[in-house]
Structures are given as structure tokens and as C-alpha cells.
Design brief:
It is built from 26 helices and no strands. With 595 residues, it is an all-alpha fold. Among the domains are: 211-292, no CATH class; 298-499, Serine Threonine Protein Phosphatase 5, Tetratricopeptide repeat; 501-595, no CATH class. The longest helix is centred in the N-terminal third of the chain and has 87 residues, at 77-163. The relative contact order is 0.02.
């Protein structure tokens, strides 16, 4: 029986294994499950969950899905709601335990740090107690000072009251009208002004001395100076007398009775002959003292006092006063590069003018009053400083109105500034032109004129300059590439010969990065007809046939065959110019006549 039951159960299991069908899901359930699956994936992507994910976000997502399933499966809603409630209770318990553990951990750390915190509190208490004692000590000192000042003020008021006359109360108060005299606010304001005026007067008493005392001090100084002058005069006389005594003593030692000259005559000759005792060091010192000018010593002392006063003002941060003090120094001892470096080492105070700029403003504003203009180094540094502070107005005033020593570097600084400030481009070019003209750099002055659009003015300026070389012309064309400039320099005006050879300029342009400009000039000349190109080539006595042949080859190589043919036709049409066959090696490639 047992074996039969086991066999029957095995057959039933085999039947169940092979013949059980999967549950059939309707379309609505399938769509619901797919939507739940998409919802889970989408929400996990939004919150950045991984497969395990952050616990809180992971729980919230599946909790929402569980709620939707409970709403959808209405038949099992009560059971599923009870299951969800139990799970929520377990999760809330876990969260509460986690918060409790976190609080306990914080309390544990606080208990562990309590001894150290107690030590810090005690140390801080000691520091505060010391600070309180210092404050109390200072307060007592200030209190005593206030009491002293109050007593002094009361004594002064008492003296003033005892010394002044009785005032008639029926008279109007000076400075107040009748209406203001009966207005409490006006009277309070008037009292406040009087108290302020009284405090200023009281403070001025401690700063100044009476006029009578000043007069007595001036008289004492005059008497001391008179005594010093008398002592110096007496010293000079005594030194001279000492010198004569030394000379007489030396003459007595050197006199020879057998020399045939009396002692008196010998001493007289010795005193008249200054070279007789010029090797005597003490006499040299005496002569030096005789020739010493006391006024020079006083002047040196004044200069030292002046320098000390400048350093005192500078150390106190009174940079504007120190700058004026340095510029107005006697003999200009503080108008130099060393003082400039002192101001240069100070940074710009917040909301104030740069101290270095204050120095240059004072220096340049007094340049017309001094005999010599400001030197080139200070001029360059001053203009750099003004431009760094964006004070182009100061540079314009200095360059046009003051006596300065310009240099090429100064012009370069102004010229380069216009590249960073297009709004003031015309002003910078005009200033740079003035500087270049003053320091004899004609090619850069002409360049500034060309960049201002003054092409004909630049050409006229070049004609007035005697030493404008070919390199200067090349520099001008390369830095200001312009068809109008090339035409003015090569063709001239009113039928006159230009300053440069047209062919030479074209060769220079074609051999540089300005090749395009060279072809533009040639095309513009060729547009006037073959006669205009021929006229220019015939007038050009510098560029020979070989040069024009090189220009024609360049035109042909760069896609201008028509222009090349015109140049070659003009060359071949000239008398004495013949074309050489390629196999003829006995002659040159081209021959030309000398015009």
C-alpha cells in the first residue's frame, strides 16, 4: 500500500510538472504592471538611485507603488493594507532608533569633550578678568584726566566771570534775532555753538603761546645769533694771529745770522711768503677755518631739517603735502628719481589718489618755474603713472603746457596706449606725434600723422626733414599700409617727382607680407590706362629693367597675367631694349638704355 501510494504521488507530481499552465493575465493587469515598472525605473533615475539606492528615496518609491497596487487590487485591499501598516510601523521604529542612536552619540562626544571645554572656559575667564582689570585701570586714568580738565575749565570760567563786566539781560543776544531769542531750540543751538567755540579756544591755549612770549623768544634768538657771529669773527682773528705766531716762530728757528739779512727783514719776508708754511697741517687747518663761510654751514643744517621734515610728513601719510614739500625743496634736492621711488613704493590708499601721481602732478606743475625742465627719466615715469591711472587729461596738459624732456620711449608709451583705448585714439596719436617731433624721431612722427589720416601733411613733413632715409620710408609703409600713402610717396603731386621710386616700393611690397597691397597699387595705376603705367615706369630712374622684369614675373606668378603683359610691353617698346633668346649665354637676360 505504501509503495502504491508513493507511485501514485509520483505520477501526480509528474502530471502537475508537465501539465500546469501559467496564469492567464488580462490586458488591464498587464498594462498596470508595465506602468508600475516604468514608474519605478523613472523615479529611480530622477533621484539617482542605484540598484540598492539611498534607503529613504528607495523606500518612498516602493511605498508609492505599494499604495497604487492596493488601490488597484480591491479584493485584497484589507489584507494588503494591514501588511503595509505593519511594515510602516517597523520602518518608523527603525528610524526612531536611528535618531535616538545619533543623539546618544552626540551626547557621548559632548561628555568626552567636557574636560577640555572646562579648561578652555577657565582659561578664557582668566583672560577676560585680566582684560577687565586693564579696562578699569584705563577708565580710572581717563576719569582723573576728565576731573582735571573739568576743574581747569571751571577755574577758567570763574576767572572769566570775575574779569568780565556785567551784561544787561535786556539787550539782544549777538547773532540772534528777537524771535530766535525766545525760541528754546534756537537758544539750545546757540549754546551748543558757544560751547564748541569755547572748547576750541581752550584747546588752542595748549597749542600756542602768547604773542608777547613769541616776541621775547625772537629777540632771544637774534641775540644768540649775534653772539655766534661775534664768536666766529673772534675765532677767525685768533686763528689768523695764531698762524702769524707760528710763522714768526719758524722764521726765528730758520734765521741764519751769517746770511747777510737782518732778523726783522727775514721775518717780514716769511710772513709775506705764503708758500713758506704751506706744508704746515695746522696752518692749513687755520686757513681752511679762515676761508670757511658760516652761511654755508647754516644752509646745510637747513637742508637737513628740510629732508627730515619731508620724511616726517611722508611717514604720517600726508602724501600730498609731502609731494609739494619735496618739489619746492631748495636747490631741487628732492626733485629726483630717489624720491620718486619712495612714492612708488607706496600702494594706492582706498578711495584716494595714488601718492606717486600726486608727486608727478606737483613736479610737472612747477616745471615752468624752474630753470631746467624735468629730465627724460622722470618724464617717462610720470606719463606711465598717469596712463596707468587712466588720467589721459593730465598727460595732455603736461605734454602741451609744461617743460619736459621727451624721449622716444615716452612717445612709444603714449602710442601704445591708443591700442588699448580706442576711444582716445586720436588724442594719443596727436600727443605721440608731438613727443616724436620734439625728440627728433621723424619716422614715428610721420607714422602718427598717417594713422590720423593726414597723409599729405605727413608727406609735407617728410620733405622738410633732411635725414629721412630709405629705411624710414620702408618703416612708414609697412606700419601704415595705404594705397594713398604709396601714391603720395612715389608719384608726388602737381607733376613733381615723388620722394621714392615707384618700382622700388613695389619690389619691397612684393617681397614682404604686404604683397596684396603692392598688387592693389599696380592695378589701380593700370586702371588709368597703359599710358599712365608707361609714364610712371619712364619717370622711374631708380628701378631698372631687371627690377621691372622681376615685378612682371611676380604678377604672372600671382594670377595677374594681363598686368605682367602690360609691364613687359612697356619694357620691350623702349628703344635699345631687346629680348634675348634663352639659348644665348653670351649676353645678359635684358639690356636697357640709360635715360
Amino acid at each position: 500500500l505504501t509503495s502504491a501510494l508513493s507511485e501514485m504521488s509520483s505520477q501526480v507530481s509528474r502530471i502537475n510538472k508537465h501539465f500546469v499552465l501559467p496564469p492567464i493575465i488580462c490586458d488591464s493587469d498587464r498594462k498596470f504592471l508595465e506602468s508600475m515598472q516604468r514608474y519605478i525605473i523613472t523615479e529611480m533615475d530622477k533621484v539617482g538611485c542605484t540598484e540598492e539606492g539611498p534607503a529613504e528615496e528607495y523606500f518612498i518609491i516602493y511605498k508609492t507603488v505599494f499604495d497604487k497596487i492596493i488601490e488597484y487590487v480591491s479584493a485584497y485591499k484589507n489584507i494588503l493594507t494591514s501588511v503595509k501598516k505593519e511594515y510602516d510601523a517597523v520602518i518608523d521604529t527603525l528610524k526612531q532608533n536611528q535618531r535616538t542612536a545619533f543623539c546618544l552619540h552626540g551626547k557621548l562626544k559632548a561628555f568626552a569633550a567636557e574636560p577640555t571645554t572646562l579648561i578652555y572656559h577657565r582659561k578664557r575667564a582668566v583672560q577676560l578678568a585680566m582684560k577687565i582689570r586693564i579696562i578699569e585701570k584705563n577708565s580710572m586714568k581717563i576719569q582723573h584726566e576728565i576731573i582735571k580738565k573739568e576743574l581747569r575749565r571751571k577755574n577758567t570760567i570763574r576767572e572769566i566771570k570775575s574779569s568780565k563786566k556785567d551784561i544787561n539781560p535786556s539787550q539782544p543776544i549777538p547773532g540772534l534775532s528777537w524771535q530766535e531769542s525766545f525760541n528754546l531750540d534756537s537758544l539750545t543751538e546757540y549754546l551748543r555753538r558757544l560751547e564748541k567755540k569755547y572748547a576750541d579756544l581752550e584747546f588752542s591755549i595748549t597749542r600756542y603761546i602768547p604773542a608777547q612770549r613769541k616776541a621775547s623768544l625772537d629777540e632771544e634768538v637774534i641775540r644768540a645769533l649775534s653772539r655766534r657771529d661775534a664768536a666766529e669773527a673772534l675765532n677767525v682773528r685768533l686763528k689768523f694771529r695764531y698762524k702769524r705766531m707760528l710763522a714768526t716762530e719758524k722764521a726765528l728757528r730758520d734765521w741764519d745770522p751769517a746770511g747777510g739779512i737782518s732778523l726783522l727783514d727775514y721775518i717780514t719776508q716769511a710772513l709775506e711768503d705764503e708758500s713758506y708754511f704751506q706744508d704746515d697741517q695746522e696752518d692749513d687747518d687755520a686757513a681752511h677755518l679762515i676761508e670757511d663761510d658760516p652761511s654755508k654751514a647754516r644752509e646745510a643744517e637747513d637742508l637737513l631739517d628740510y629732508i627730515e621734515r619731508f620724511h616726517e610728513l611722508f611717514s604720517q601719510g600726508q602724501y600730498e603735502v609731502a609731494a609739494l614739500f619735496a618739489i619746492n625743496s631748495p636747490r631741487g634736492i628732492l626733485r629726483n628719481i630717489e624720491i620718486m621711488n619712495i612714492f612708488k613704493g607706496v600702494g594706492k590708499p582706498k578711495g584716494e589718489v595714488l601718492p606717486l601721481l600726486l608727486f608727478f602732478e606737483a613736479l610737472f606743475s612747477t616745471s615752468r618755474a624752474v630753470k631746467r625742465p624735468v629730465d627724460a627719466v622722470l618724464t617717462l615715469e610720470g606719463i606711465k603713472c598717469a596712463l596707468s591711472e587712466k588720467r589721459l587729461d593730465l598727460v595732455i596738459h603736461w605734454v602741451t603746457q609744461q617743460r619736459l624732456t621727451f624721449s622716444e620711449e615716452t612717445g612709444d608709451v603714449i602710442y601704445n596706449y591708443e591700442a588699448h583705448n580706442l576711444y582716445n585714439r586720436a588724442k594719443c596719436l596727436a600727443l605721440a606725434q608731438i613727443v616724436y617731433s620734439e625728440c627728433a624721431v621723424p619716422r614715428k612722427a610721420a607714422l602718427c600723422m598717417c594713422k590720423q589720416g593726414q597723409i599729405y601733411g605727413a608727406v609735407k613733413y617728410i620733405q622738410q626733414v633732411q635725414n629721412f632715409s630709405l629705411d624710414d620710408f620702408i618703416f612708414l609703409i609697412k606700419n601704415c599700409p595705404s594705397i594713398e600713402l604709396v601714391k603720395c610717396l612715389t608719384q608726388g603731386r602737381n607733376g613733381k617727382q615723388g620722394a621714392l621710386s615707384f618700382g622700388l616700393v613695389i619690389l619691397i611690397l612684393l617681397s614682404s607680407e604686404l604683397k596684396k597691397l603692392g598688387f592693389q597699387v599696380l592695378l589701380e595705376v593700370s586702371a588709368g590706362g597703359k599710358s599712365s603705367l608707361e609714364e610712371i615706369m619712364l619717370r622711374d630712374t631708380v628701378c631698372m629693367v631687371e627690377g621691372w622684369k622681376e615685378i612682371a614675373d611676380a604678377c604672372l606668378a600671382n594670377g595677374h597675367p594681363k598686368l605682367s603683359q602690360e609691364i613687359l610691353s612697356v619694357l620691350v617698346a623702349q628703344e635699345g631694349v631687346i629680348e634675348i633668346l634663352p639659348d644665348d649665354d653670351a649676353t645678359n637676360l635684358m639690356e636697357h638704355v640709360l635715360w
